Amino acid sequence: MNPAKVYVGAKGSALVLSFGFSIIYSRLLGLENRSVLTFIFTIASLLILGFISSLGLTLRKRISNTLSESAEVICYLRKLFYLTLVLSALFISFLLIYSAFVNHLNYKILTLSLLLFITSSLIQGLNELMIGIDRLRTISLLENMEIIMQLIFFLVICKMLGFSIIISVMLAISMTYALSSIIILRLVYAHTKGHAGEPLRFNSSSTKDFKLFDSSSLYIILPFVVLDRIDKVLIGFLLPLISLSKYSVLLVFFSFVRFIPETISKTFFSRHQIRDGNREPNPRFILVTSIVASFVAYPLYVISIGFLLGEDWTLPLGIFLAVAVFELVRAIYLLQINRQFAENLETSFKITHIPWFIGMAVVLVYISVHFVGLIGVPLSFALTYLALIIKDKSRANRSTGKI
């Protein structure tokens, strides 16, 4: 079977396992503590996906162009280590600001959050590397095993050692990622040693031109990650604490659809690309189908979340539909922009207008939440993504000579 399709399927099964684990600890944490953990996860994922994924994309692009893996991999690992240290300092700074102005975090939470961030950064970077060296099946297996291990570690730490729920969750995830990182490093070492044919040296002169990021990688990853995570950051600062928990659980519900465009986009940059020919989907058909599916899915959301966590965790139909529209235009933009980048429609691919759209989204959210509350967040970001789709579609048409 095509490794990319195996990867997509494994991502789906990992998502199911992850959903089950999140339901377990969410139920035990309660709305307020779940909000704190969500904020920590959000800041961590924003930095890690924004910068580590950009570094990984740079590596995959270089390997795809040169087919020279060993020296590139060694340099990548060195830069991953340095970047993790820098991002760790930024991460702690964000948490200290949150602790000072929103909700106090004690030193235990801060320390374990830092451990969680470091291990998460390393595993994300190593996963990006494994995709680059064409080990999609290995990553698929490891990601599923990681979630099972997280649940086992969580139960042992919480039930047998008596730690609090939030500490048990962070410790379980950190321990799992640390163990997985060791396994992947061993696999990468064997892979690169086999390709090099000689001892590997970390000061290889052939890697001096490996930039931490090339401009196109940073432009394609970082702005989108900021757009994708900043909604929860704004909710954490602008709305009551429990709003973030409810919104986060709703996004987890939608993640069963969200993972498909995200995973397919990643395969654009592996050697096993999923190609669908030159056919473009009918936007009207997608819109109508999505709206109908959302009305059908809402009762399922209310029943399932109400049963698993309680009715206090559910949100009204209006917010559900607003998030559905948000997720739809987000998916369209993700596929559109990644395909343009993968096909090298522009040599530099500098999307300098995106920071302006991020600023527009922040302003829209800040204004709308004061008038309509939580529903203003997904609606504001839906409008932002729609504007980006129009902007980037016109830019792509100009670059290919279309009118």
Written account of the structure:
The chain is mainly α. It has one domain. It contains eleven helices and no strands. Helix 1 (3-66) crosses helix 4, helix 8 packs across helix 9 and helix 9 packs parallel to helix 11. The protein is globular and about 60 Å long. The two termini are 40 Å apart. Mean pLDDT is 79; it is low at 196-207, 271-279 and 345-349.
Short structural description:
With 403 residues, this protein is mostly helical. Helix content is 81%, strand content 0%. Helix 6 packs parallel to helix 10.
Question: What is the strand and helix layout of this fold?
Answer:
Elements: H1 3-66, H2 70-101, H3 107-132, H4 136-160, H5 165-196, H6 215-238, H7 241-267, H8 283-308, H9 317-342, H10 354-372, H11 376-399
Helix pairs in contact: 1-2, 1-3, 1-4, 1-6, 1-7, 2-3, 2-5, 3-5, 4-5, 6-7, 6-9, 6-10, 7-9, 8-9, 9-11, 10-11
